[in-house]
Design goal:
Length: about 625
């Protein structure tokens, strides 16, 4: 490693606080924090098999580190001591290792081992290397340096958190939380005002209270955890503290709440002549995380509360997901032959406003290329009767006294509005084909309109006409939705505490019907289905791009209560899902006697998923996967 400025003699003075017991833990922290090793375990003492530290590299390879403590820092390690690393690597079947010591390792000895054992990749760290590694890192300094000596000092770990009542979506403030003790952890609590940045991605409550102190600060609680711990142990300590805090909050409130933990920090007391100042060192390698406390007092991570548990469950999410398959991804149930799509809304933050403006501008251009016709109600009705099913307008609204406006809205806009659900008439499978079909349709419609007493109006006028009737063609969205694939792979990007009030579960079935897409659309245009429970029905007709078959897509959308997890919702509504399927099947087979539920067939033949026993897979050309590695509490 690169040498830091400073006298070797002064650096070696830092080693006086180390001993044979603490040296392996120091090396473990260096491997964990500076070299990104995982599963770091110290195995020191009799019977250690010549191995002091076992860890795993990013590549998945095993790594062995051998530590040798020398009280005389100017002494040189013997070849017999260095041989122990070679013995350990051979015994445990790995090629990569580290020999660390508080003494000196001569350059000749390093070259000798590298030349004599080319099959191994060995690195060496002597006393000065250890000191340079520690003082180059503020976090390692906070944990391991006390004044001018390396030792495992007692520190305070600060864990900030907010409490949110799920039902009212309001912060829980002014709660008095008593001190807690867990094994070697002593936890006290206090209130503070901190930057919202440590909770990002953060969702503020719908109704702002005094806890939101302006644009940058938030009123929150802090758990002060006092103990002596290595960096390698911090994640485990935080997890234990989070669980304890959750159970404590449940006893105090006895209601469904969310805890949002921010980025923790270490405090180090620096003694000064005039005062004692606490400097906070932000542990930015640990990401914020939220927990939901159920009414029964059980603690769930917000991710486990919102997503479907695929372990030992009948619902399976596709592995090896592609970018193309992401929009079709959901949890599949072989029992229902059904695909479950989840949706959670989140507020548009300032960081997203630029991209939202681009999307907004694109929608305006699409709306400007849409077709708007006005005329009397009688003329409009006669004109509509002359059109084919696939040529019908997207929107019909009153206009003035006895008039109407007919609008054929660009599919790019309709697919993003969310409040408008529609069938595409022609049943096109590819979005680009939908646009071409739309452009062809409005050309035909406009030519036919020339034979009727209809007037074409621009988008600006059409928007005013629709707005008078309470229909906004370009609504200003304050929320966007995160769909199944992004929820599964990029859950940490969801603003939290999540907007559980807008959580929806959509169950999708595909039916193979013996009709052309236009015929199927015409048959369905006059059909209605009622259900004995609260649910939203949507259906559409699609022509398979690969199979050239006609598929009727039906979906039932349920709102999920804020008080239950998605797993609990599925368990409680298992019967309703089956009942909804039977109602759909009965209706569809009354229209097409030989219609078959073909959900798995459609996702296999058209989307490209492979259904295996106990799961399903995609076959990507371009992978859909997270682009960042994060450490959660």
């Amino acid at each position: 490693m690169t040498r830091l400025p400073g006298s070797p003699t002064e650096k070696l003075e830092f080693l006086k606080g180390l001993n044979e017991r603490t040296l392996p833990y120091l090396i473990g922290d260096i491997l964990y924090f500076l070299h990104d090793h995982a599963q770091v375990r110290v195995v020191d003492g009799p019977g250690d098999g010549k191995r002091d530290i076992h860890s795993v590299l990013n590549s998945g390879e095993k790594h062995i580190a051998q530590c040798k403590y020398h009280q005389n820092y100017k002494s040189t390690v013997s070849s017999r001591e260095a041989d122990e690393l070679v013995i350990a690597l051979t015994k445990f079947g790995t090629k990569k290792g580290l020999f660390a010591t508080t003494a000196r390792i001569s350059p000749q000895a390093k070259r000798e081992y590298i030349d004599n054992f080319p099959e191994f990749e060995m690195k060496f760290m002597d006393g000065i290397d250890l000191v340079d590694a520690i003082i180059s890192s503020p976090i390692l300094c906070a944990v391991w340096i006390d004044k001018k000596s390396i030792l495992l000092a007692k520190n305070s770990l600060i864990l900030p958190f907010i409490i949110r009542d799920i039902e009212s979506d309001r912060p829980v403030e002014s709660l008095i939380i008593p001190p807690q003790v867990l094994d070697d952890l002593n936890i006290s609590f206090k209130n503070n005002h901190l930057s919202k940045e440590i909770f990002q991605p953060y969702r503020k409550p719908k109704q702002i209270t005094y806890s939101e102190c302006g644009a940058s600060l938030i009123s929150c609680y802090e758990a002060v955890i006092s103990s002596a711990f290595t960096i390698n142990e911090i994640t485990e300590k935080l997890e234990d503290a989070s669980q304890l805090i959750g159970h404590t909050i449940n006893r105090l409130l006895n209601q469904t709440t969310v805890l949002r933990f921010g980025v923790p920090s270490l405090t180090k007391v620096i003694e000064r002549k005039d005062d004692k100042e606490k400097d906070r060192i932000l542990l930015s390698f640990i990401s914020p995380k939220s927990y939901v406390i159920s009414q029964l007092g059980h603690l769930f991570s917000e991710k486990d509360w919102i997503l479907v548990n695929t372990k030992g469950n009948e619902w399976h999410f596709p592995e090896n997901l592609s970018m193309a398959g992401a929009s079709w991804a959901g949890w599949y149930s072989n029992h229902f032959d059904c695909m479950l799509m989840l949706q959670v809304s989140y507020p548009i933050s300032d960081e997203l406003s630029y991209y939202y403006q681009i999307e907004h501008d694109l929608k305006i251009r699409s709306l400007e290329s849409s077709l708007y016709l006005t005329g009397t109600a009688e003329v409009c009705n006669n004109f509509l009767q002359s059109l084919e099913p696939g040529q019908q307008p997207s929107i019909k609204v009153p206009y003035g006294i006895g008039g109407k406006m007919l609008a054929w809205i660009h599919p790019k806009v309709l697919s993003g509005l969310g409040t408008i659900q529609h069938g595409d008439g022609k049943g096109e499978y590819i979005v680009d084909d939908e646009i071409l079909t739309f452009q062809s349709t409005i050309e035909i419609v406009y030519k036919q309109a020339e034979n009727h007493d209809l007037n074409k109006v621009l988008f600006t006028q059409a928007r005013h006409i629709a707005a008078i009737e309470g229909h906004e063609l370009l609504p200003e969205f304050k929320y966007r939705s995160m769909e199944s694939a992004d929820l599964f792979h990029y859950f940490s990007n969801l603003a939290s505490p999540a907007n559980l009030e807008e959580r929806k579960a959509t169950f999708v079935w595909m039916w193979n019907v013996a009709s052309s897409p236009s015929e199927a659309s015409q048959i369905l245009s006059n059909e209605t289905i009622s259900f004995p429970f609260q649910v939203s029905l949507f259906w559409d007709v699609k022509r398979g791009f690969s199979t050239k078959k006609t598929f009727l897509m039906t979906s039932l959308t349920f709102s999920i209560s804020v008080h239950i997890s998605t797993d609990e919702f599925l368990k409680n509504n298992n019967g309703l899902i089956g009942q909804g399927f039977e109602i759909l099947r009965s209706c569809i087979q009354s229209l097409w006697k030989d219609a078959k539920c073909s959900t798995q067939y459609f996702w296999s033949a058209e989307v490209g998923f492979t259904f295996e026993e106990g799961g399903l897979r995609d076959h990507p050309f371009v992978m859909h996967f997270p682009d960042t590695k994060e450490v959660n509490l």
